[in-house]
Amino acid sequence: MKIRLALSLATASLWYRRKVLALVCLTLTLSVTLLLGVQYLRTEVKQSFTSTISDTDLIIGARSGQLNLLLYTVFHMGDATNNIRWSTFQALEKDARIDWLIPISLGDSYKGFRVVATDKAFKEHFRYGQGQPLELAGGQWSEGIFDVVLGAGVARTLSHQLNDEVILSHGGGRTSFSNHKDTPFKVTGILEATGTPVDQAVYISLQGMEAIHVGWESGVAIPGRTLTPERAQGRDLTPSAITAVFAGLDRKILTFRVQRDINQYAEEPLSAILPGVALSELWRLMGQFERALLGITGFVVVTSLIGLIAVLLTLQAQRSHEIAVLRATGASPGLIASLYVIECLALAVVACLSALVLSSLAISILGPWLLTNYGIQIQLRSLNLEEWALLASVPLAALLVAFVPALSAWQTSRSQGFGSPDKL
Amino acid sequence: MNSQLLSSADGSIDKPEAIETSNLTFCWDRLQPTLRFPDFSLPRGEHLFLYGPSGTGKSTLLSLLAGMLSPASGVVKLLGTEFHRSDAGKRDRFRADHIGVIFQQFNLVPYLTAEANVTLPCKLSSRRKSATGESPTLAAQRLLSALAIPESHWQRKVTQLSIGQQQRIAAARALIGAPEIILADEPTSALDSDNRDRFINLLLALAGERNTSVVFVSHDRSLARHFHHQIELGQVSA
Q1: Ranges for the ABC transporter domain (chain B) (predicted)?
Q2: Chain B residues 95-124 within an 8 A CB cutoff of chain A
Q3: Which of A239, A403, B163, B221 is most buried, judging by how many CB atoms fall within 10 Å of its CB?
Q4: Under CATH, which number does the domain B19-232 receive?
């Protein structure tokens, strides 16, 4: 086989038909970009999802299923089945195997965003991603009872500045009719975007949570019994119950033993879960969707390839004279067929390379914008093996479908007579 | 029968004829009548004129001689080889090495330059390449000059050239590397009479220099005067 001749002929032919082929190549490029993008996002989103919380060994709450506990503590979705007593928290604090504890108390909201009441341990021990701590974009962590720190998403959506005054609402929901209007909070800090549910919550102290609920024991404010900010200062605001606890252990090897001990805690029914395990279980549930998305994108690429073949087959009719000349000059049917294979493969490779450039451009331009506006963290990184394999599958598929026009060209040129094929 | 046996000019026996055929028939499919072709033999370096009205199988005969079609029966001997017995691949290689072709029109690969079209046979056949003696490009340029293609046109896209120029470039492609046989299928039918005579004279002169035999097909009988031999086709029997 005259490979060099075939290559030079195919190159010249592609260039000659560049206007038509550029459009097909563009279609293929866009679909490969989509395929690559979806696969890239899958990996990134999974990565970001499974590292929503890190370094926390156990999440402890009232007895419930592990997904439920994970959803309401980490993702602020759904509600706690029950509270845990403060005495239980104190008992956990005494456990020598536990290094640190972050108590959290949920239940209120601010314009649809969850209010999370916690203490200093949250700032010190809460980690996300690859063990990144939370950083403030401005201001400082709450010092007083009525100080609030906003997640990046909350501050952006509601355009809050430092020192703004906010009124929290009782219970969840975007529009609540029972507001804690006697006890306004002051924004003292705004967090950096993390790309996790942390961005979508506001953080107050446990004392603040306790203070705004004095006089609300029946579920609504009883006039005269609620606290004013001044009256709150002198009181003991230790909570009687909290919603959940994040725990870090001294020795990770003891995780399962501590988990079992907590699950069998005699004083009240508790559940302890391993966040990593629960997160991957949750991902398995949602994974169906992203696999379906990848499947759909795969079909888009297949459709583009079929379009490519359709165009090549249409061009074949125009090429009969040229093929007749090549055949008469002594080119074998194999050489003619190889032209189609080379052209198809070259188009696919060009499309893949353009898709690589296009998607890396898109990610580097859109990445920072996505993080600040949607809290989605996507960084440019080199492709992993799976992504390379996916990308390589496009030219391979092109090679496979190229046999359609190639075989048809081979067959026609085998029975090619002198001159044009339609001529007797 | 209008068939005639052409005798060799020098009468030598050991030097094989360029083309010899006997009892050649071809059938496109069962519904169409079988085409029967007259027997002839053409010595090296001599030129044959084939004429006849359309539908008499002129192009079919050229396809058989070029090995692009296989005869239903009969013998085609080219340069002493029993061409019809070779397999398709061998015939393709033989054609690349020993045969130049010129069509009626659409003779050129549209995306190659004039020069690249002329050197195409040298890329398909190392025999034709080495026969140029020099580089194929130099040989192509020499032929293009001889065929009065201006130098400014050599690197041009062939689709920008006139029909007359395109046919002369096709002639240069057929002549390069001095193949023993040139098959030309009505190459002058799109040319005016001045161009036609000039084309045939140039083609035959350059073929003569290379001891190349030309088989020239046309329905225009007036061209016969340029050739050593002539055969009329037109006997189609069922």
Answers
A1: 19-238
A2: 95-97, 99, 101, 103-104, 106-112, 116, 120-121, 123-124
A3: A239
A4: 3.40.50.300
| Partner residue opposite A419 with nearest CB, options B57, B110, B185 | B185
Cα end-to-end span (Å), chain B: 15
Q: Which residues from chain B sit within 8 angstroms of residue A3, using beta carbons?
A: none
| Probe site for chain B from A1, A20, A325 (most B CB atoms < 10 A) | A325
* Amino acid type, B103: F
B89 touches chain A (CB under 8 A): yes
Query: What is the ipTM metric for this complex?
Result: 0.85
Q: Which domain holds residue A195?
A: 58-281
Whether residue B140 has pLDDT greater than 70: yes
Token pair of B234 as six digits: 């037109």
Q: Using CA atoms, how far apart are residues A289 and A42, in angstroms rounded to an integer?
A: 10
Q: Are residues A33 and A131 in the same domain?
A: no
Contacts of A327 in chain B (CB under 8 A): 68, 92
Helices (H) and strands (E) in chain B, counts: 7, 10
Locate tokens 């391993």: which residue?
A274
* Residues A255 and A322 both lie in one domain: no
Q: Do A329 and B124 touch (CB under 8 A)?
A: yes
Cβ atoms of A162 and A190 within 8 Å: the answer is yes
Q: Which residues of A262-280 are buried (b: 16+ CB within 10 A; e: fewer)?
A: beebeeeebbbbbbeebbe
Chosen domain end from A264, A281, A298:
A281
Selection from A333, A314, A339 nearest residue A402 by Cα: A339
In angstroms, the separation between the Cα of residue A340 and the nearest Cα of chain B is: 15
* pLDDT one-digit tens code per residue, A226-282: 777 777 777 788 888 999 999 999 998 999 999 999 999 998 999 999 998 898 888
- Phi, psi (deg, nearest 5) at residue B213: -85, 135
pLDDT digits (tens, 9 = 90+) for B162-189: 888 888 899 999 999 889 999 998 888 8
- Chain B interface includes A10 (CB < 8 A): no
d(CA A124, CA A134) in angstroms, rounded, equals 8
**DSSP type of residue B5:** P
